[in-house]
Amino acid sequence: MRKVIVSVRLPRDLHEELGTMARIVGPEDDVEDAEALLCLNVDPELLRRARGLRFIQVVTAGVDHLPWHHIPPEVVVASNAGSNAAPVAEFAVALLLAAAKKIVHFDRNMKGGVVRPDVEVPVLSGNEVAVLGLGEIGMRVASTLSAMGMRVVGFSRRPREGVPLHRFTTDLGDALSGQRYAVVALSLNKYTRGLLTYDVLSSMAEEGVLVNVARAEIVDREGIRRLLLERPRFVYATDVWWSRDDYSRDGDVIGLPNVIATPWVAGGYGNRGVYMSMLRSAVENLARYLRGEQPRNVVPREDYV
Ligand code: NDP
C-alpha cells in the first residue's frame, strides 16, 4: 500500500478517509518509501530521510515558510489557497471599513472621553481601491468592495476572469499612485518580499489606508514605519506581523496610533472551524494526487528558489 506521512493532527473522520487510500505514518516512522507528506511545515531532516517523496500538501494557503532550498525539484508542492479565503476576505473588508470609516478612531476617542466628532467620515462608494493580488482572497475582496460601489484596481501578474474590476494592471506604481485605499492579498515569494517600499507607499494619498491580510514581509518594515511617523493620518490596518512568534518585537509599530493591529486571526488561527475546513481541503487535494488526478494549487517552484 502507498505510504503517506502526516505531521499534523487530523480529526478521526479525515484520518479514516485518508487511511482508505494510503498507509498513514508519522514523521518519526520509517519514511524512506513514503511518497507524499501532509504538513504545516517540513523539517529538512525529514526530507533527507524521505527519499521517495514526490508530493507535499501544505495545510496553509501561504508556502513562504517552507525550507525551499531543501525540497528536491522533483517534489511537487501544493498550497491550500482558497481553503480559508472567504473568512480572510471578510476580515480584510472589516479592517478596511474599521480604518476608513474611522470606527477605531471614534472608539478610542469615546473611551478617552472625547465624544465630539473631530474628523469627517469618508464615503467609499464611488472611490477607487487597489487590490494587490487577485487570488482566492483578492478576488473575493474585489467582488465585495465592487458590490459596495467601489471601483477596484486589480494588480497581479495575470488577469483573472470573473472579477469585477474597474481596471487591471501589472504595474504596482500604477496601482498605488494617488490611491487612498489599498488591500494586500499577495502571496509572499521571492518577488513580493519587500515589494511595498517607502517610495511605493508614499505615492499613496496623504490620508491613505493600507490593509494587509497576506504576509507582513511584503511590506518593508522600516518603510511603513517611517511613513506612519511622517503621516499621522495614514492608517496601516494589518493582521500579519514580521515577528511571527513574538509580537512584542513589533511593538514599535503596533503601538503607533495610526496602526490597527490584530494578531493573525483572519484565517485558521482565529477560528477552529476554519482550521478544520483547511484540513479537509488539504486532505481532499492529497486524495486527488493519490487517485492520479491533477492536484489543485501546485506552487511554481520558481517563485521561491
Ligand atoms: P492565491 O495563491 O490564490 O493568490 C496569490 C495572488 O498573489 C495571486 O493573484 C498571484 O498572482 C499574486 N502574486 C504572487 N506573486 C506575485 C507577483 N510577483 N506579482 C504580482 N502578483 C503576484 O492565494 P490566496 O489569495 O489564497 O492567499 C494569498 C496569501 O494570503 C497567502 O499566500 C497567505 O500568505 C496569506 N494568507 C493569510 C492569512 C491570514 O491568516 N492572515 C490566511 C490565508 C492566507 P498571479 O496569479 O498573477 O501569479
Description of the structure:
The structure is a single chain. Helix content is 30%, strand content 15%. The chain has 2 domains: 3-82 and 271-303, 3-Layer(aba) Sandwich (Rossmann fold), CATH 3.40.50.720; 85-266, Rossmann fold (3-Layer(aba) Sandwich). Helix 5 (136-147) links the parallel strand 6 (128-132) and strand 7 (151-155). The chain has 305 residues and is of the alpha/beta class. The chain is built from 10 helices and 12 strands. The longest helix is centred in the C-terminal third of the chain and has 19 residues, at 272-290. Helix 3 (85-100) crosses helix 5 (136-147). It has a 7-stranded parallel β-sheet. The structure holds NADPH dihydro-nicotinamide-adenine-dinucleotide phosphate. NADPH dihydro-nicotinamide-adenine-dinucleotide phosphate (NDP) binds next to helix 3 and helix 5. Residues 61-62, 81-82, 84-85, 88, 133-138, 156-158, 185-189, 191-192, 213-215, 239-240, 264, 266-267 line the site of NADPH dihydro-nicotinamide-adenine-dinucleotide phosphate.
Instruction: Based on Cα principal axes, name the global outline.
Output: elongated
The top-level CATH class of the largest domain is: Alpha Beta
Helix content: 25-40%
* Low-pLDDT residue intervals, each spanning 5 or more residues: none
Task: Return the CATH architecture of the largest domain.
Answer: 3-Layer(aba) Sandwich
CATH superfamily membership of the largest domain:
NAD(P)-binding Rossmann-like Domain
Largest sheet geometry:
7 strands, parallel
Provide the gyration radius in Å: 21 Å
Q: Assign the CATH topology of the largest domain.
A: Rossmann fold
